[in-house]
Design a protein that fits this description.
Elements: E1 4-8, H1 18-21, H2 28-39, E2 44-48, H3 57-67, E3 71-75, H4 81-94, E4 99-103, H5 105-109, H6 111-117, E5 123-125, H7 130-142, E6 152-156, E7 159-163, E8 188-191, E9 194-195, E10 213-214, H8 217-231, E11 235-238, H9 247-259, E12 267-272, H10 279-287, E13 292-298, H11 302-307, H12 314-326, E14 331-337, H13 344-357, E15 361-366, H14 374-381, E16 386-389, E17 404-406, H15 411-428, H16 432-441, H17 443-452
Helix pairs in contact: 2-7, 3-4, 8-9, 9-10, 13-15
């Protein structure tokens, strides 16, 4: 008799940020973990991306009842933790024998606190999920207990036990192809050529470690071709933290993409760090007809950039954006308002700098004190211009964000700066048509911003 495993995201409560609450992409973590378990076991595994499929609680519980799993694995972000609590409680009501396993960055950051907060979670997976989830499932199947498994938190005899024996990470050459076939077809897919980031941004948890690991380029092409052939997506985006950190690898992958003429089949883009975008690489990306490059700029104030661990300065940013415009590559730039000791002046520095570099898509967000980050520590200690954090995890969102209060400005003032920053880049550069297009594209998000903040 085989073990039955269902992997899911939390149910839909309400649509606040459509990009996350009504996504046009399926959750990659489900596909990665399912693919690894399927390749290394005979277990019966299914995936339900409740957010993508817009499933309410009753709909999701019905699917769980129909499948009758032994294990339910939930992948969740911080802002979804309230939904996880409700889901886990309802699963246990239906069948108290189902083992519920929670994964994701939230439980990775605060494993013991999360199990205390959600009494119906049996096991928490810390860090990367593939190997650990398989070990947990093996232990459940063999009725062995969890004492020999690293990087988990679990319950035993009314106690919460944390085991961090080592920090092993998956060798990506051993990784299975993600089980995209277990999820519905989507317009967009996020894939990974590498994992890990060498930088130490104080607002980031960096659960994949500081050493960058790479997949084989041909393995990545195999995944891309599979997605194109089976699902015909409109867009494939590399979700790497630091795409092109290894130039040799990046060029080998781009060469393979050029061989298959990827631009004839799908739009593709990347997120990466400004440091890695040199002329040679941009020439090849242009040859492969990249659709867009997104980078984190974060601030337009030099002192803040020095302190947040990003490893960049304004001069570096300006040079890079000059190159990107030279090669006529579409750009996206992320900016955060609410850095440590942020003032109204430093916020204006960021808005003016955003207008100066003039990215095609400026994206402003308010600082979120995600658990496990340096920012979270500052907020708890009432340091660096932070007063307090919300006690409601649902507030921990990026744009529609009520997670934090500041000393130097009110929430209403920060709300104004966020809106004005998004407007100013377009107005300053006389990009009126682009502004109208952006307003129309994000009209639901804009309405919800005024409704929920």
């Amino acid at each position: 008799m085989s073990l039955k495993i269902m992997l899911t995201t939390p149910q839909l409560d309400k649509i606040i940020e459509p990009i996350y609450d009504k996504p046009i992409f399926v959750r990659p973590s489900l596909a990665h973990i399912a693919g690894y378990i399927r390749d290394n076991s005979d277990y019966d595994i299914r995936c339900v991306d409740a957010k993508f499929s817009q499933l309410k609680l009753n709909d999701l519980i019905k699917k769980i009842k129909e499948f009758k799993p032994d294990v339910v694995g939930i992948s969740a972000y911080t802002y979804e933790i309230n939904e996880v609590r409700i889901l886990a409680r309802e699963i246990k009501k239906e069948n108290s024998n189902i083992i519920i396993v929670l994964g994701g960055s939230h439980i990775t950051a605060i494993p013991e606190d999360t199990l205390k907060e959600i009494p119906d979670i049996d096991v928490g997976v810390i860090g990367e999920g593939e190997q650990t989830m398989l070990k947990v499932c093996d232990s459940i199947f063999l009725k062995k207990g969890y004492s020999e498994i690293s990087n988990i938190v679990y319950r035993k005899n009314d106690k919460i036990i944390l085991q961090r024996k080592n920090n092993y990470f998956l060798d990506l050459n051993d990784a299975a192809l993600p089980a995209w076939d277990l999820l519905p077809a989507a317009k967009e897919y996020y894939i990974q050529a590498s994992r890990g980031c060498p930088f130490n941004c104080i607002f980031c948890l960096n659960p994949n470690g500081t050493n960058i690991r790479y997949r084989n380029a041909k393995h990545i092409i195999k995944e891309i071709e599979y997605l194109i052939e089976k699902f015909s997506p409109e867009r494939i985006s590399f979700g790497d933290e630091a795409f092109a950190a290894n130039k040799k690898f990046a060029h080998s992958l781009l060469d393979e993409m050029i061989k298959i003429k990827i631009w004839e089949k799908v739009n593709w883009d990347i997120q990466t760090h400004i440091r890695f975008l040199d002329d040679e690489l941009l020439k090849k990306m242009k040859k492969a007809k990249i659709n867009k490059i997104e980078v984190g700029v974060e601030s337009g104030n030099e002192q803040i950039l020095k302190k947040i661990g990003k490893g960049i300065d304004k001069k570096m940013v300006e040079k890079t954006f000059f190159k990107l415009k030279k090669y006529k590559i579409k750009t996206g730039a992320f900016f955060i308002l609410g850095h440590p000791n942020e003032t109204k002046k430093t916020i204006w520095d960021t808005i003016k700098f955003a207008a100066k570099i003039n990215p095609d898509e400026p994206i402003f967000a308010i600082m979120v004190p995600f658990p496990g980050t340096v920012i979270s520590k500052y907020v708890k200690e009432g340091r660096a211009g932070y007063l307090r954090a919300s006690d409601n995890w649902s507030d921990f969102r990026k744009q529609i964000n009520k997670s934090i209060e500041f000393k130097n400005f009110t929430k209403t003032e920060l709300k104004f700066y966020l809106i004005f920053g998004n407007l100013y880049v377009f107005l300053y550069n006389f990009r009126f048509l682009d502004l109208i297009r952006k307003g129309y594209h994000y009209r639901k998000s804009i309405l919800n911003y005024f409704r929920y903040t």
